[in-house]
Specification:
The protein is mostly helical. The protein is built from 24 helices and no strands.
Length: about 525
């Protein structure tokens, strides 16, 4: 197949043939190739950018998956010793930087080349991991996180723009599913390596990921930018004609005024408020409230396992009797890694909006389950439901946007896909940890119980009792078992409340997606009418 996007010549699912010229785009869904035909049609460059994204995610989630634990663990255990509320401020800035920059750099990647922006981003990301390793303080980690956010933001438009230009509308559903699947190979392996490294020392987490990201320099040697000749020829024609290219900011604002684009970004800004809770809050929730030992006993017996292979694959504690929080969260990436192309094939049978709505319902149901019980079995079930929902909704989000984007503005529109992430993830980055601090933080609840049990109030302040040490002090002071005290705290406080609040946001976003889908279907029907102008410009 051609490495350039071919939006024309295919029928929308359940509709009639669209005679859409190569240079135009259409709002209608396009009939997809079968699963194996779509896989066979994928080009060389598709697999190269998939490998680059896999390595980038391996390194990124090698840090992001453990960041919550690293920040909130007490200093005595090698952590930064900050509260979830303080960590939320870091996440707010991290998410804000990572989401604002692609909106600006997407157009730059289209104009000046994908390979150049990928190279610059890889340099920045390597430096970020080294800063985290060298400066083991909250300000040092904050600076490293900002560099990592900047590098990630520059990386995304070039990679995803390449993906769009190396696929067609007839194989895009399977292509995005496979891309999402290869990405999650990195997302699954990264946290497992990070877990092994943090058992040694936290600094090795950052050094290892700095080494991993450098592998992308080697893949860049084999990378060929699709559409490079056309881009260079177009720029040469503009120079020869003495035409001054339009200001990128003005061009981006002009695109954002298109109603179907603006509404889409607004709806998914709500969606992105609830979606990242899995990575930003769930690791701490599992560490505080979910006892994973019954699962290990079910799998291996009451004494657990001493197999180093199972320790690594399941993300287990060093004694082999429990699973670390990263291991539970990693079920998500593991499922996506093995099954995403199958779910993508299933999702290709439906309209894009229908698939995204089904996925949103699954994610919302999973959030309710997380908040409803501390039983490890239900937590695993929730992880499975969340993962299926994510596989249905998340790849379709970028696929749909890339498919309806004008041919010469693919990376720009993919850059726009970071607007919902900017708004939603930035809000969640602060709101999620803050709500957890208010309703669910075990350290905070233990401080209250210490006072209730007669411990001097002036001795439970953060200055007198370091962050992360309160529950251990409660166990020591009361002489009761950690399991009993954990159960008492959970029964007397609404520790699941943050999950219910974000599930409500999920319900609202699902309603918005439903009505947007109906509106887009009407626009697509008008587009197919002979009297209507073709394309969306």
């Amino acid at each position: 197949m051609s490495e350039h996007t071919n939006p024309g010549g295919a029928a929308p699912s359940g509709g009639t043939l669209l005679a859409t010229p190569q240079s135009e785009t259409t709002l209608a869904d396009v009939k997809q190739l079968s699963l194996w035909a779509a896989i066979a049609s994928l080009s060389y460059v598709f697999w190269i950018v998939g490998a680059m994204e896999m390595i980038e995610r391996l390194a990124y989630y090698g840090v992001r998956a453990v960041a919550t634990l690293y920040a909130t663990r007490p200093v005595s255990e090698g952590g930064l010793g900050v509260t979830m509320a303080t960590f939320g401020t870091l996440l707010l800035c991290w998410n804000l930087t990572q989401s604002v920059v692609p909106i600006l750099t997407g157009g730059l990647a289209d104009r000046y080349g994908y390979k150049q922006t990928i190279f610059v981003s890889t340099v920045l990301k390597c430096l970020a991991y080294l800063v985290m390793a060298w400066f083991r303080t909250y300000p040092g980690f904050f600076a490293g996180a900002m560099l990592l956010a900047l590098g990630t933001a520059i990386f995304k438009p070039g990679i995803q723009g390449t993906l769009i230009k190396s696929t067609s509308r007839r194989n895009s559903s399977v292509a995005w599913g496979i891309f999402y699947q290869t990405v999650n190979i990195g997302g699954w392996i990264g946290p497992l390596f990070a877990l092994q490294m943090r058992h040694l020392d936290w600094k090795y987490v950052f050094y290892l990921n700095a080494a991993f990201i450098c592998l992308n320099f080697l893949l860049l040697l084999t990378y060929r930018e699709p559409g490079l000749e056309e881009r260079l020829a177009r720029q040469a024609q503009l120079r020869a004609a003495g035409v001054r290219q339009r200001n990128l900011a003005l061009e981006a604002l002009s695109e954002l005024r298109k109603p179907h684009l603006a509404a889409y970004l607004a709806i998914f800004s709500v969606w992105w408020v609830m979606f990242p809770m899995l990575w930003d809050v769930l690791p701490k929730y599992i560490e505080d409230w979910v006892d994973t030992r019954p699962m290990v006993a079910f799998l291996f017996g009451p004494d657990g396992t001493q197999s180093r292979l199972w320790h690594f694959l399941l993300g287990m504690t060093q004694d082999g009797r429990a699973i670390e929080p990263e291991g539970i969260v990693n079920i998500n990436a593991g499922l996506i890694m093995f099954t995403c192309f199958l779910v993508a094939g299933f999702g290709a049978k439906f309209r894009a909006m229908t698939t995204m709505l089904m996925g949103t319902c699954g994610i919302t149901a999973a959030l309710v389950l997380f908040g409803s019980s501390r039983f490890i079995g239900l937590a695993v079930l929730a992880m499975v439901i969340f993962s299926v929902g994510e596989m249905l909704a998340s790849p379709k989000f970028s696929e749909f946007l890339g498919n309806i984007a004008p041919p010469d503005k693919k990376a720009m529109w993919i850059g726009f896909s970071h607007v919902p992430i900017l708004i939603g993830w930035t809000i969640e980055g602060k709101l999620g940890p803050w709500l957890y601090h208010v309703f669910s933080a075990k350290d905070e609840l233990a401080r209250r119980m210490l006072v209730e049990r007669g411990y001097p109030a002036d001795q439970v302040t953060e200055k007198a009792l370091p962050i992360g040490e309160a529950f251990k002090k409660l166990v020591e002071f009361t002489g009761e078992s950690p399991e009993h005290l954990t159960q008492m705290l959970a029964q007397t406080h609404p520790v699941g409340m943050p999950w219910f609040i974000f599930a409500g946001i999920g319900v609202f976003s699902g309603v918005l997606i439903y009505f947007y889908g109906r509106w887009i279907a009407r626009l697509a029907a008008k587009e197919r009418q002979p009297s209507a102008p073709k394309g969306i410009g």
